[in-house]
Model the fold of this input.
Amino acid sequence: MVVLTLLAATTVGIVRVRNLFAVAILTGVYSFLMASVMLVLDAVDVAMTEATVGAGVATVLMLGTLSLTKTEENRPIHSVALPLFVAALTGAVLIWGMSGLPDFGIAETPVHLDGPDYVDRSLKEIGIPNVVTSVLASYRGFDTLGEVVVIFTGGIAVLMLLKRPAARKEDE
Amino acid sequence: MRMDVVLRVATKLLLPLMLVFGAYVQLHGEYSPGGGFQAGVIVGAAGILFSLVYGLEATTRIMPVYVVEALIPLGAVIFAGVGVVGFLAGDNYLAYGQLAGDPKSGQKLGIILVEAGVFVTVSATVLAIFYAFAGRGVR
Done:
């Protein structure tokens, strides 16, 4: 509860503050708090990823971007009505979608019906104690391959975007 | 910034720890939380720390840009290749049962190889994106 309150406070801070350096640091703080939430929920693997990627690397990359641009956010040129409407609509749709989720802790969800099956089978069939790893790399290997390809594609796309202007300068 | 003694010494102390922790997260992923994704980011972050303190040129001397950019697809190819090997060994794509003598060690071998592929792609992507950002700042 304390962590969630801090999360909300950090979000308000990110929205309100116009100094982008502070925003980058606050985003890192947000990621650390999110990692704490994951830790409380016993999702240690996710917490680790959030802490390293969200708080570590993403913050550095944001600061790297800031060194290329200005550190002060401009006042919006256009009216904020349309973005506000889109954000509110998206939020409303998400909340509406959440009403379709099963209640918290209910026993008949797939997690509780199929989950124990994997926990039971993992040690017998694969022989490694960490169920997360066995599900990630073996039972759901195809998903993970997709994730790696996503990272690969994302990396290539960012490199293309960032490198093109530099290459053009060299040509001139 | 390059001449800051505190930063240089602290980095020298931290870097081996970071790399060893990355290796631990990678290789111990079957017993403790972690795996290729997390280890890749940790090692990539170690590279970023090094280049923040010692400069981009020193880093690109150890890990040239073209090597890093070749490693990005290599990891994905390792992952997909393990799948193809299982396929050729007479099993389903990405099923590791046939990779070694008995299914259990086959599974372990498959997972280790696949995680290595994840590690290679993730760490190289993190470093390559940082190179791209930092390289733009220099020009």
